[in-house]
UniProtKB/TrEMBL annotation:
Disulfide bonds join C84-C118, C132-C166. Residues 84-118, 132-166, 273-314 form the ShKT domain. This is ShKT domain-containing protein. Pfam families: ShK (PF01549). Keywords: Disulfide bond. SMART domains: ShKT.
Length: 314
């Protein structure tokens, strides 16, 4: 059966940018030795198989976080596999939080190397310039997979020009990556609250570029924030504290208790944005300790929900 026929049965209209179908598997196709999936590729599956029983794992073009292969990680913003790296500067200090249920998703996305989500891979050897011609129409979409050892042999033959493995470079080397690692919507909301201004209480320029470079206008060699701003005091450049305000569970990584951790607001705001924290300590104390400027670490929704009024986010 051709891949295109399977896609027609599954009614997938935006091939190949769809995500993993969460269906009981009849057959799993793991493309561990191919970086490109052609629509006319044939797979061994019964023609009379029920279409909703099929589970297809489309790796590379539509990635799954732990299925990109060695040297790669999944970029959830673009839904493609990219080079394995840590995106924020304080990953090492927060390594012990990698499996914490509150921070696991954020750290897996932004501290992939530190948290063991992926492993950096080697660089492919060069080819002769005479062989430097792309033979696949999917090369540009798979440029980020050129250094993946699982796809190296295939891409060296199919996409040598795109992967720059010729004896003489035929295309300009890629620029330093600069994008919104927290997502465009979150970065825009942070920008509205002064996150891009590197003299504010939130972040220095390097952190702004790591987290919201595109929205804050830090890409292409441009500086972040507005001209003439003074860098924040040194004590405001310290990464998140060793101890989180809500300590991780000691026995097992259990989900949060069913009883709400916060009560209806008493000092203004709303359940989604207000001074709602009712545990040990107060929002004023947390603000003095730097809680409000750790938006990127604790998460914007977390800060707004617990101390939004005090932090000026409501």
């Amino acid at each position: 059966m051709h891949i295109a026929e399977i896609l027609d049965q599954l009614d997938v209209t935006d091939w190949p940018q769809f995500e993993l179908l969460q269906i009981s598997p009849l057959a799993i196709f793991v493309l561990s030795d191919r970086a490109v999936l052609e629509e006319d590729m044939e797979v061994d599956v019964e023609d009379d198989a029920e279409p909703m029983e099929l589970t297809l794992l489309f790796i590379v073009l539509s990635c799954i976080n732990d299925r990109c292969g060695e040297g790669l990680m999944c970029n959830r913003e673009t839904e493609t596999c990219e080079q394995c790296r840590d995106k924020i500067p304080w990953c090492a200090k927060n390594k012990r939080h990698c499996n914490h249920y509150r921070y696991e998703e954020f750290l897996a996305e932004n501290c992939a190397v530190t948290c063991g989500v992926c492993t950096p891979g080697p660089i492919s050897p060069p080819l002769e310039e005479s062989e430097c011609e792309d033979k696949s129409r999917h090369c540009k979409k798979n440029a980020r997979n050129c250094d993946n050892p699982k796809f190296k042999e295939f891409l060296s033959k199919s996409c040598p020009r795109t992967c720059q493995i010729c004896s003489a470079p035929l295309i300009e080397p890629p620029k330093e990556q600069c994008f919104d690692s927290l997502g465009a919507d979150t970065c825009q909301e942070l920008k509205n609250h002064g996150f891009c201004q590197t003299s504010s209480i939130y972040n220095r320029e390097r952190d702004v570029k790591f987290l919201c470079g595109q929205t804050c206008g830090c890409c292409d060699g441009q500086g972040c924030g507005f001209d003439g701003l003074v860098a924040p005091p040194e004590e405001q450049l310290i990464p998140p504290p060793e101890k989180s305000l809500i300590p991780p569970p000691t026995k097992s990584l259990l989900p949060p208790p069913e009883r709400p951790l916060i009560e209806p607001p008493l000092f203004g705001g709303s359940p989604s944005c207000g001074d709602n924290f009712r545990g040990k300590g107060s929002c004023a104390q947390f603000k003095r300790r730097g809680y409000c400027r750790r938006v990127a670490f604790y998460g914007l929704e977390h800060v707004k929900r617990n101390c939004g009024v005090t932090c000026g986010l409501c």
